[in-house]
Amino acid sequence: MALDLIDVHKSYPMNHGRKHVLRGVNASFGRGERVGILGRNGSGKSTLVRVLSGVEVPTRGRIRRSMSISWPIGMAAGFLTSLSGADNCRFIARIYGKPSQAVVDYVESFAELGEYLRMPVGTYSSGMRSRLGLAISLAIEFDCFLVDEALSVGDTKFGRAFAARLANAGLIIVTHSPSQVRQLCTRAAVMDQGTLTFYEDIDEALATYNSL
């Protein structure tokens, strides 16, 4: 089971020509792998996240998916903000064919939202939305979790529970933070000017990233 990107390009139309963001990305993520992707602003990370998650399709190239991958956790997007957190849980559970109440119960136990779980998501802080999205994704049990750099759980009870829950799960984390890569990953890559380079040695990846 894997997620494979084969010569993936992504560009967007502009007034004069096209803006090329991803330039021939090749990558393979196996089930259970824990990969950190580092990159500066403007390197193509956000576009890569959207392509990995299926939110956008490549302009050219192919993506082969033989395992399930989560939405980008940390972006805190896609919720129906007029509905409560619990109602969003039920809605997402129906989409993925999971028992609604089991998902609500898991999120209630894990996300530590208290009475806010029954309040509209529009009243949540960004951190609360991140916890809600992360807890729902864990309840769905994807083969691989896609974590965006916007996620910041820190050394909190929730953060430690998150790290423990993902200890044996597949993970792709796209981040600015070398410390997150050291803590959570066994392999790393650097995104630079639309290209992705993998390093088996995390220290080498971090040194390359720091030199950019």
From TrEMBL:
Gene Ontology terms, MF aspect: ABC-type transporter activity; ATP binding; ATP hydrolysis activity
CDD domains membership: ABC_KpsT_Wzt
Gene3D superfamilies: P-loop containing nucleotide triphosphate hydrolases
Record flagged with keyword Metal-binding: no
Single GO cellular component term: membrane
SUPFAM superfamilies documented for this protein: P-loop containing nucleoside triphosphate hydrolases
Pfam families for the chain: ABC_tran
Domain ABC transporter: 3-212
Keywords: ATP-binding, Nucleotide-binding, Transport
Family the entry assigns: Belongs to the ABC transporter superfamily.
Protein name: ABC transporter ATP-binding protein
Species, as recorded: Neoroseomonas marina
